[in-house]
Task: inverse folding
């Protein structure tokens, strides 16, 4: 169970991020969000992808056009193996998601004021959301990476590398619930801390595409954005646009944070995970399941829907998914009030970072709370007509606007939904900070 614990809530005391556009600091990430900057770029030319074939898929019968665009990590091929005690040969055989996860976890600890070199032996856990991204040659072949591919391709090694590199002795678990993976990882990490399985934890998600397979799949399903933009909740949305990213947060009980002098950026009031169940095809979202999930999370969090000022939605930009999500949000958070919650999605800036998307969303919310401002969601000037906006208090965040605290707190919600039917939702309270170090 993961829910509100008024006696000693789980808090977020540090965070690290890598996002498209060369972003690897929280300050740069916030600058991009606050200014409404799009972080998309053409396909990388240094990954040996079959770009000629990929970009011509739209010419085949039944396939949709693939735009030369996405949210790609510019430093995906970069790694300092010796810094992490790994040989260069082994590093090349490692899934780049392991490498990015290690980098960002280290930064999250430093941002929390924790010396990463001094946590060896700590009863700390690590949960990382991640999915298979087809990096490197087949394991069942003779190649220069043979012998290193068992750990190099294992999803479990994404969390395991972090725990091993830092010397953490608590649970170490990679989580794959598709695009709900990162938020599911946070949910499970918080539950483990409450259960006494570890004293503190790293939780996050990472996505680095070892192949362009996701673009092939969504081209065949005609579900890619034809114009190369992820238009979350917009009337002119034609599909999603894939991206990459990595995010890690440091979680611990608030009593521990106060004892150690760690700054509290957010309290995890409650989180829940559920599944769509049977009915529609597995990849089709369920508004009923999402509404049920949100109500369950509100119930365990101990706050009312009216208190939530910012909703960081999933917002994939698909004509099917967005209206279903909006129906669930309107039924729960769209209750009549003078000034309704603002809704947005970081996917409009950076594309759909898949297993990492929930952590980029959570970090966006944490930064918004730190700065007391709600950043705009892009392409929101023409909201979808699939929902009656006049009948709900939900409003898309169209510009950078002040976010006043109430009694020293701001409340926000974060949603993530996976293509295999798993849904995750979290509610966080963001304390008003006297000063920001980001």
Result:
């Amino acid at each position: 169970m993961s829910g509100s614990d008024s006696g000693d809530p789980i808090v977020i005391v540090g965070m690290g991020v890598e996002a498209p556009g060369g972003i690897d600091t929280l300050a740069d990430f916030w600058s991009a969000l606050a200014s409404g900057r799009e972080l998309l770029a053409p396909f990388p030319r240094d990954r040996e992808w079959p770009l000629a074939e990929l970009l011509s898929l739209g010419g085949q019968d039944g396939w949709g056009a693939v735009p030369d665009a996405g949210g790609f990590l510019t430093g995906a091929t970069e790694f300092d193996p010796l810094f992490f005690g790994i040989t260069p040969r082994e590093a090349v055989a490692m899934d780049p998601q392991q490498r990015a996860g290690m980098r960002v976890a280290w930064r999250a600890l430093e941002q929390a004021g924790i010396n990463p070199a001094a946590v060896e032996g700590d009863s700390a856990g690590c949960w990382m959301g991640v999915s298979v991204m087809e990096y490197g040659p087949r394991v069942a072949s003779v190649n220069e990476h043979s012998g290193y591919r068992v750990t190099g391709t294992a999803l479990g090694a994404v969390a395991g590398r972090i725990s091993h590199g830092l010397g953490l002795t608590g649970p170490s678990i990679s989580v794959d619930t598709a695009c709900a993976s990162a938020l599911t990882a946070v949910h499970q990490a918080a539950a483990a801390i409450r259960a006494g399985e570890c004293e503190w934890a790293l939780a996050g998600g990472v996505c680095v595409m070892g192949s362009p397979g996701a673009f092939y799949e969504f081209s065949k399903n005609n579900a890619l954005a034809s114009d190369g933009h992820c238009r979350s909740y917009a009337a002119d949305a034609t599909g999603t646009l894939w991206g990459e990213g990595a995010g890690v947060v440091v979680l611990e009980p608030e009593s521990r944070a106060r004892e150690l002098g760690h700054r509290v950026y957010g309290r995890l009031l409650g989180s829940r995970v559920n599944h769509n169940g049977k009915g529609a095809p597995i990849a089709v979202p369920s508004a009923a399941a999402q509404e049920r999930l949100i109500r369950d999370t509100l119930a365990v969090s101990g706050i009312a829907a009216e208190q939530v000022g910012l909703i960081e939605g999933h917002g994939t930009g698909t004509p099917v998914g967005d209206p279903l999500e909006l129906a669930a949000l309107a039924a729960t958070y769209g209750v009549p009030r003078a000034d309704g919650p603002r809704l947005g999605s970081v996917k409009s800036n950076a594309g759909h970072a898949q297993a990492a998307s929930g952590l980029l969303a959570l970090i966006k919310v944490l930064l918004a709370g730190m700065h007391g401002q709600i950043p705009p969601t892009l392409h929101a000037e023409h909201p979808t007509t699939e929902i009656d906006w006049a009948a709900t208090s939900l409003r898309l965040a169209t510009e950078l606007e002040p976010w006043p605290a109430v009694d020293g707190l701001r409340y926000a919600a974060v949603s993530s939904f996976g293509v295999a039917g798993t849904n995750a939702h979290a509610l966080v309270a963001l304390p008003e900070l006297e000063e920001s170090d980001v």
The radius of gyration is 20 Å. The CA atoms of residues 179 and 357 lie 7 Å apart. The chain has a mean pLDDT of 95.
